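Sequence in, structure out. Go.
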Amino acid sequence: MRLMVLLPLLAAPLFAQDVHVKVDPHGDGSTASTTDYVTIQQALDHAPEAPHGRIYISIVPGVYHERINVTQNRPRVTLLGLGKTPDEVVITASQNAKEAGGTFFTETAEINGENFEADNVTFANEAGPTGQAVAAAVRSDRAVFKHCRFLGDQDTLFADYGRQYYVDSFVAGGVDFIFGNATAVFDRSTISEIRNGQITAQSRTAETQTTGYVITNSKITHDPLPPPPGRQPAVGFGLGRPWRLFSRVVVMHTELPEDLNAAGWSAWGRDDATPQAFYAEYENSGPGWKPKERVAWSHQLTAKDAAAFEPKRFLAGADGWDAEAEAAKLP
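Output:
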């Protein structure tokens, strides 16, 4: 009987306990508080631990001029923008590669903790057409971004590692602005090309890797900004080019604009007769949907082939992660 009484007590700490904190730039910034902070990084650094739960950081509307780092020892963090739309909570900086000493030192948000989530938040890099300048670098497995915006020019979103689900979101950039080697799905989102570059530069390094990008149920737009001095105006763009040899991108059930390059994809100067990149489409729409004019080495999928790239299946992994169900739990 004594053992039976002790067992529930021993098991109690294993139950998840969530932590809720708030970021308000108009707060007093007291270091004595464990629930109220004036910057997002302060909340990330000092919020109480949630060993088996999730840390919810609610962010008051405002423009947060800071660079944030969600470290590996901060898993299960959720950023919740309290505005009505994602443009009311903006995290922004303006580092570019020349100033920072390389592309991978420029990110406004560096996200390494597993099971990261963000809802109703904008991640921006305002360096403009000055070279590589990352808004968000995501190396988080089982990451969910819902109602988020990613704004930049070249190299906006470094989707580099882990399974990542972007839903009802917006990504804008000019050159290779979604890049890296994550297993990522962009669902019911808008992808905006603001110049005449390539949208994706996916970097799968071996055919056996399960990584790649899927853009589905979405809309791709061409919204060219005035060109930088000395450059020609934007006149067309492509869906992707292989940053690494076995780059993989699939675009399906997505509306494409008229001025998408009819070839669709670029070999990035490689002279292989048949590049080893896997670039494919399925049941797209819009005036830019010209499957007969695509480069010969790209693929038009069958319904059976396309089923493997549906979000739930493509992101499931060995643990059966259901990204759509996780996203549905967010506001």
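Check: The domain at 18-328 is CATH 2.160.20.10 (Pectate Lyase C-like). Confidence is low (pLDDT under 50) at residues 1-13.
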